[in-house]
UniProtKB/TrEMBL annotation:
One of its GO terms (biological process) is endocytosis. This is SHD domain-containing protein. InterPro entries: FkbM_mtfrase, SAM-dependent_MTase, SAM-dependent_MTases_sf, SHD_dom. It comes from the Bacteria. Residues 147-263 form the SHD domain.
Length: 263
């Protein structure tokens, strides 16, 4: 009954106007939040200060709505936000436009420069360029209530391109919903440190990222769970050890893998 009423409502002349109004109110609220500061921002600032110092270069790959970019800026970093979704780009421009040191790259990062297809979700935070990741999280039920029913063509650069343009980053945050391996495959030079989101359904992608990063330079690894800004393990470990540790995690655990160049 509820679904039937919703479908009928969509046919009325007022539905599109209502949807545009809702989107505009959400955009304004999001921009307001981006300009504000709260305890969660302070917690993130303390955590990322392990990697980011005043004057550091930071790449925020998959900047989305900027909740990490504003923290990097608060730490005094030159922050390059990489974001292919037009809606998110607009929020970033308006929310961080007055922040010194912020630069927006309206593109994705991948294995090679060019163009690629992006699958846009009903929730912008889980839009993805990986069909395999979408299939994996659909089958697991993690995002069963969401759809990826729109596609857009987006420009693609490589991490090496970014380094040539902006310099070597002290830290790279990568949150690209299953496209992480393509991002690190476009990197051939060591960076200070990098974080990669991982989910159990797509763990093989993460393990290949570990191998890729370890092949570029001597690297140690550590993880944090559930976006809680706390370490999930005591020490930094090598590539083989972190791969073993990640494969032993429970299937409900997701988080961020951190890699730090040691050479």
């Amino acid at each position: 009954m509820k679904n039937t009423l919703r479908q009928l409502a969509k046919r009325t002349p007022f539905y599109s106007a209502y949807q545009r109004y809702r989107q505009e109110q959400l955009r304004l609220t999001t921009i307001k939040q981006l300009k504000s500061w709260d305890a969660e921002d302070e917690q993130r600032k303390a955590f990322y200060s392990n990697f980011v110092q005043p004057g550091s270069i930071v790449f925020d790959v998959g900047a989305n709505l900027g909740n990490r970019a504003k923290v990097f800026l608060a730490l005094g970093a030159k922050t390059i936000g990489v974001e292919p979704q037009p809606y998110c780009q607009e929020v970033l421009r308006q929310g961080l436009a007055n922040k010194d040191g912020f630069h927006l790259e309206s593109c994705a990062l991948g294995t090679e420069p060019g163009e690629a297809e992006m699958f846009v979700s009903s929730a912008h935070t889980i839009s993805s360029m990986s069909k395999e990741w979408i299939q994996d999280v659909k089958e697991s039920g993690r995002f069963a209530e969401h759809n990826w029913d729109q596609t857009i063509r987006v420009p693609v650069k490589t991490m090496d391109d970014m380094i040539d343009q902006y310099g070597t980053p002290a830290f790279v945050k990568v949150d690209v919903e299953g496209f992480e391996l393509a991002v690190v495959s476009g990197l051939s030079k060591p960076v200070g440190a990098i974080s990669l989101e991982f989910v159990p359904e797509h763990l093989e992608n993460t393990l290949q990222c570990v191998d890729r990063l370890a092949a570029i330079a001597p690297t140690k690894f550590r993880y944090s769970l559930w976006d809680n800004m706390e370490w999930g393990m005591e020490d930094w470990v090598g590539a083989d050890q972190i791969k073993h540790i990640l494969t032993q995690l429970d299937n409900d655990k997701w988080g961020d893998l951190f890699a730090r160049t040691t050479a």
